[in-house]
Structures
1.
Amino acid sequence: MAYSAPSTLQGALSALAAGPVAVIAGGTDFYPGLRDAPAPTDLLDITGIAELRGIARTPTGWRIGACTRWSEIVRADLPPAFDGLKAAGREVGSVQIQNAATVAGNLCNASPAADGVPPLLTLEAEVELASDRGKRRLPLGEFISGVRQVALRPGELVAALHLPDPPAGARAGFAKLGSRRYMVISIAMVAVLVRLDGAGAIAEARIAVGACSPVARRLPALEVMLAGCPAARLAGFDIAPAHLEPLAPIDDLRGTAAYRLDAVAELCRRALAEAVGVAERGDG
Amino acid sequence: MDERVAAARTRFRLNGAPVTLSPVPGERLSEVLRERLGAREVKIGCNAGDCGACTVLVDGAPVCACLMPAQQAEGRSVETVAALVRDDRHGRALAAAFQNRAAAQCGICTPGMITAAVALLRADPVPDEAAIMDALNGVLCRCTGYRAIIAAVLEAGRSPLPGGAGEVGSAVRRLDGAAKVEGREAYGDDIAPPGTLEMRVIRSPHPRARFALGDLDTFLAVRDGLEAVLTAADVPGRNAFGTIPGFIDQPVFAEAETRFRGEAVAAVIGTPEAMRRFDPADFPVTWTPLPAVATLAEALAPEAPQLHAGRAGNVMCEGFVECGDPEAALARADVTVEGRFRSGFVEHAYIEPDAGYARMRDGRLEVQACTQAPVMDREGLEDILGMERGSVRIVPSAVGGGFGSKLDLSVQPYLALGALTTGRPVRLAYSRIETMQVTTKRHPSDILLRIGARRDGRLCGLSFAGDFNTGAYASWGPTVANRVPVHASGPYRVADYRAEARAIHTHCPPSGAFRGFGVPQAAIAQEVLFDEIAEKLDMDPLEFRYLNALENGLPTVCGQVFEQGVGIRACLDALRPAWTAARDEAAAFNARAASDGGPRRKGAGLACGWYGCGNTSLPNPSTIKAGIRADGTLVLHQGAMDVGQGANTVIAQIFATALGVPLGCVTLVGADTDVTPDAGKTSASRQTYVSGNAARLAGAALRADILMRCNASEAARIALGAGAVEVTEGARTQRLPLGRLPPDAEGYVLRAEETYDPPTRPLDASGQGVPYAQFGYAAHLVLVEVDTALGHVRPQRFTAAHDVGRAINPLLVEGQVHGGIAQGMGMALMEEYLPGLTENLHDYLIPTVGDMPPVETLIVEEPDAHGPYGAKGLGEHVLIPTAPAILNAIRHATGCRLRAVPVTPDRMRAAILERQK
Ligand SMILES: Cc1cc2nc3c(=O)[nH]c(=O)nc-3n(C[C@H](O)[C@H](O)[C@H](O)COP(=O)(O)OP(=O)(O)OC[C@H]3O[C@@H](n4cnc5c(N)ncnc54)[C@H](O)[C@@H]3O)c2cc1C
Ligand code: FES
Ligand code: FES
């Protein structure tokens, strides 16, 4: 029965290699997941490891330490392409949750409704995994393999996320649909990242949708379709079922599958309009 | 350096002082603070991050202490509300502003609210409303509707003290407010000393199951620190509880078969260390799931399993009111409308899960738990324990919200049996999941309604048939079945009327009392169809209601004629300017939106409500006692449970006014079945009216006694001084020295004790009679915005006119209005309890601070001859008009007729798509 809180990644990896322990970071998924059962007593707290904290510039992009809290992401000085990620961070639970919850925890919990995943997909994040056998990297879309399933091998931790430099001048948006204003698990959410050309038309668009499939998905057909679309026309942009083909929503207590598909199209339009800075219809 | 801190020490600063301790692995910061460091001001509402009651500042940042391993506090600074309101300038300012705004009702959320607000003000000393909402977004409040809290934070540091000396009509601070904002208030789980034996109830994982208990002796023997297991065999008296004579049907422990998911079969008692390790899944019991009925339709099917002998067809009871000839009236009506309306379970979602503490003292049992009905609890426990009357003492803890559910016994029987069996003090706090699984709910309803009207707009026949899912046990189901037919007409003149309501058993949690006892469900059907019939008649919805509104001298559907005090027209008059403005605003907005292609639409909706105060045609006396000690201390024994609504303050205001002294002279002694007389239960919106009258009579009696002793007239003024009462009449002042009067056993030299019981008469077979001595009246208006593309409905503002007869304390009236509207809005738009699916505050959504728009409260005072100083009840009235007003506004905005609540975004969007077809 032990609680270990190593101060180095190496210490944590040794502890992990030594035997089964439950990894805990912000605890915001860990504790609620217990429901009314007692907490496991062998715990590995990774929040004291400096190497796992913070956001840093790398030669090719950005590194976000696994244990970076959502509130740190929200406050960080980052290019506009990260605005969708920040907006998602502001929607993770509440202020209290954002002050504790970590970005890697959000990914490892692998909820289909994890708000962090769609914006990280649009940022083409890679997950850095560490074990005492070494390090490896996986694209985020491969790391999360299903509902509550991740490609963590025994003895492995998520050490960081690596985000390549986004396209110059790219902007981003995030739209979350929930049944109340705060502290709500998404019925669906959409993250977008767009770059406009000199004429104000879309040069590149990346769109990812959460809570409408076991793992959040990019929408490549829609991304292709959007290229060349003038920004001013985004609000009324027609989205066909084929554009949403990667999605496979289900009926659950938050909403029906049909509703999700229907709403996602509108969320895409709104997130795009927000990213490029066109006012929504009827907002004036 | 290492790292293993299993037995290692954790050091941090708590409110500035260094602390060192050794948390058990997995122990939460909240547990350490509450149980090892005495910081009981940190509240536990959910243990899952959803309610924010446990908010503390760690290095200045608000976090949920319930989600933080205690070891993560190592080397950091932890601050709690107790120190913030004492030492921090923002904390002090907030404590004052929260009291001035009555922003703490039950107060269970207040520590979290103030703590989160301190963090905000440190970063942004003059925040705007949006910033306040963002900062308080993690703390749920079920009582206040948040607006008073927002106002308090907005004006922290420059908040004006509300006025008056506490006489009736003055908006004084709550008398118990300081304890709430300072975190000193002790709720159900705040009483037991650390180290007290803990209990855990073992519950059925199936809606219906046969079960067999395993070898309990071996189970106990092999587990260190487990002290006892209780089952049905350990119940010395009657293994049943309930609320209504003839319907005492819920076992403390099921005996062979459980009837709802979460029903108790056993309880385990052990030391805190043992209970921390104990996993209920290890308890030796085997389950055999049996076919169960969950819905009204399933329960009413001919082949349905029967829940209780003697309740054929699973029909528990029926209520019925009839007058005139409704079918003939409907047949001759010029226009008719009809509809079938449905609603689901609604959870009270008070932030304090049921909890308490019990111990044996001198052969008697003493229970301190959160409750709305201490004397009913006492009698219920005496029956369960097989003890004679007077063997049990109930000393209620503070109550962190009740709304009807804490009328029923919850933790008390287990605590009582635990203390009796072990001979030692025991504590029990339900987890959030338990409290949501097993405490009562609002009844799901299935209502058929037909209404007719003449071309001139007069109602012409109303026929109502409602089935209510009463769950596995009776609880307050009979009350719902009785109240609904009396109220289903709404506050209107309906000469030809028939209403029947049935309470139907299912294998669901018991449905019980929830603010309104079924009337809110009935009002949805009636008020929504009123809009439809008004439209058919091409009448303005407000004018249609006005035309048909009850008036003095007109009979109700029960044949009761009030010569005075009927205030519904006054409410509608008060609302009329806001109504016109809201309709115009919606029309202008929609015209713009239609022309620029935007997806949003606005609508204004209106609904009325009425509600009889006190028990339906049954005695429900309240007794209030007061005394003056030789030293001049004036003591008021105030047994009306204050569950946040403000009885402590309101009853004291009435008493002080009747006696003729400033409120500040009154020392309160709260509910305690040994020393405070029975003021009845806090339900049926009866405390201001019924206990208020007893307080008025007690104050008047004490005054008469003093005046008589001084031979002074009613015009004289009374002043309490040290050791004497001074009576002044004109220029003459007399001193009544108290030291010379003989003290009674309680030390009072002067005393009064008075009882009031509302004058009602039984209802006959057609429901005709005098069900209530008074009704309160209300009309709500809401402006909503519907995002037609996504289905979101966002109320923009409410205007609420309430006839309260006389506002004893306008600040507290406003608090009830805001809180009731928030609950009505939740019921309309987001709340649905689904057994097994939404049994926590993560999946069961109640409004957050960001969902609640501004509310304008219009206090209407149509005095009631029976009410103290004309006052009428209010608590339940508020949420009756809210949901139908929202549905009517949605229809105004979109044309969609919604017949079921909650109108979640997916249902709204589906209705919009359906209409577009
Ligand atoms: C009230 C509330 C509201 C919430 N609202 C939202 C919301 O709106 N949107 C949303 O997306 N989420 C929400 N969440 C979920 C949660 O806050 C996030 O998923 C959070 O980011 C999880 O991070 P954590 O550090 O708290 O994880 P923990 O609870 O500490 O850990 C979660 C899981 O991940 C594992 N883990 C954590 N870090 C690592 C690592 N570095 N390597 C390997 N395994 C690891 C743990 O072993 C555990 O199994 C909410 C939670 C609560 C309690
Ligand atoms: S008790 Fe911690 S958030 Fe509810
Ligand atoms: S005052 Fe907020 S929950 Fe009661």
Note: Chain A has two domains: 50-164, 171-276.
2.
Amino acid sequence: MGQRVNAPGAPMLAPKDFKSDYKPVWCPGCGDYSVLSAITKALAMLALKPENVAVVSGIGCSSRIPAYTTCYGFHGVHGRALPVATGLKAARPDLTVLVASGDGDGYSIGGNHFLHACRRNLDLTYIVMDNHVYGMTKGQPSPTTEPDWSSKLAPGGTGLREFHPLVIALASGANFIARAYSGDPNGCAALIAEAVRHPGFSFVEVLSPCVTFRPEQREWKTMVHPAPVAATDDPGRAARRLMTDDGFNVGVLYKGKRPAYARANGGNQTVEALACQFRA
Amino acid sequence: MLKQIEGSQAVAQAVALCRPEVICAYPISPQTHIVEGLGEMVKSGALARCEFINVESEFAAMSVAIGAAAAGARAYTATASQGLLYMAEAVFNASGLGLPIVMTVANRAIGAPINIWNDHTDAMSQRDCGWIQLFAENNQEALDLHIQAFRLGEELSLPVMVCMDGFILTHAYERVDLPTQEQVDAWLPPFEPRQVLDPAEPVSIGAMVGPEAFMEVRYLAHAKQMRALELIPGWADEFRRAFGRDSGGLLHSYRTEDADTIVVALGSVLGTIKDTIDEMRRDGVKIGVLGITCFRPWPLAAVRAALAHATRVVVIEKSLAVGLGGIVTSNVRTSYGGSADAVHAVIAGLGGRSITRASLARVFAAALAGTLEPLSFLDLDGALVERALAREREQRRSGPIAEGMLRDLGVVAARI
Ligand SMILES: Cc1ncc(C[n+]2csc(CCOP(=O)(O)OP(=O)(O)O)c2C)c(N)n1
Ligand code: SF4
């Protein structure tokens, strides 16, 4: 967990060293450009090298991210990023594994894996670029879409209450829960770096506007605000806070103390970790 | 009423005319326009008494359709490609339970590698799942097949998949004749389910069946499909009388009467094949084409009769049974009285590669000259494959396959 393999004295890499030559095909102004920048900044801040990192994704505009980095990348099928990342991390626990998803990939078709990844608490960092819409398939409502948002598929809105990913992450056992905003790449980078450093399953929900199908999300820049209180390690307090969350609190909202999933063959299993499994 | 509309809208309108009661879907290209069209009709009230459910995956879509159909509702969904594979367990479930769900499949390739373009791999992966599978040649037929599908499925209590080529048909604007509500109501009676929620006799559906009857349940599904073979031709006649055009049926022959070479294919490629054949006919070549509309059940006797005089058969198919060759070809061979060697499999158009008249003409000429292999791949870039194979021979760590080939081609994976 958390070990960094940069040789002492080796020159630090810059964010650009984590960007590949592929030119992203996102729409101009898409929030995901800034998430890509934030990820590369975070990796540089963590003094990692591309070969220390794997980026795993599913399908969606947001899931194009792996190939835009110089890290190991895996572009999977829709909804399966988390289990693929789980397999990868099991095979190569030395790697820092980032998992990238969208609100469709991660919360609808892949929703079940989200619950179990939180519960398993493997040392992964899950970055969901939430734009409250299926961007890639051209503008259908996702689980985080407002009930009255009108689209062709659901004219007048779905009428369904939004899914609350942070509450679900907490209830399912995620060890680190934060919300970031792509419009603040430095803040977003710092949150991603903190998520990577924190042991266990870290969840970073990034508000990342889809300027094409949700142009009104450009207004998010006026709506986001720093979370008024510091992160707590108490799930009960975090739950109360998240239940009254306005959806625009940015910062670390929960930092748990559950030991990360340990390898069955002993690796870093401790008495405390075992005891905790029985308490959880 | 004649209308110039997108194929997806033609299908959406046809489905709406069939008065479905529950529609459920998850977006996936190239199917999404169909369900978006239906979503708008439900909201506007043009499609009354229909519940439209936005589901969280295709697995949920088919499961919702199963629940609705089990409760006696007319249920519809649509998908493509990865979506069809993702719902596969529920697809088998629907046919095993004998629920007459209608589903459009906007045919698209299956990954990896990721590809959104047309071929028939998705539908072919489900060919033995117990659904009736119909393939549309053009948008008019796609529209008509949906109307026929509800009646066929409900008569036999079997689910029906209407397959139409993704993008080539779903996104093409063509003139279609849209029937009136009265015409469709006269042709399609209200759904009279075989299993209903009967307060006098509540039953639990989904029994566990051991060896004592499992085979019989499966056999019954097969027997029903055989019954479909008997019904479909008569219904195509009836459809012609009611709607004034030829649509559906088991198969369509074109210029085969005196043909010694017969091409067999499914879907929209039939148009290109017909054009190629017309050209060859002008040069005196006795060649024709057999279009298969009903792929499941397989019209064994009808295909046999249609191929009776052919000395050579060329199957153009948009799917590949990896490790065997042609899927449609294997079916055609069961229906061909002559030597199996006279039936050639030509795998074409995978992942959206164009099937051109020039390439088809070359293949047909090779067949006539006796030089066509039993299995060939239309316009395969052999040099590209050879480079990949050489890489694998030379180095154990030859790397990921698709990425290596793109590098060889000098193509930056532009669509990443
Ligand atoms: C099994 C399956 N179903 C549907 C699709 C079509 N599809 C591709 S991306 C996507 C949703 C993308 O939305 P989201 O995850 O929010 O990412 P965004 O594009 O907004 O970044 C869908 C439905 C698919 N590729 N595979
Ligand atoms: S459609 Fe939306 S999410 Fe996709 S690239 Fe464009 S702006 Fe970004």
Note: Residues A 59-62, 78, 102-105, 129, 131, 133-137, 142, 210; B 26-28, 58, 82-83, 86 surround thiamine diphosphate (ligand 1) (CB under 6 Å).
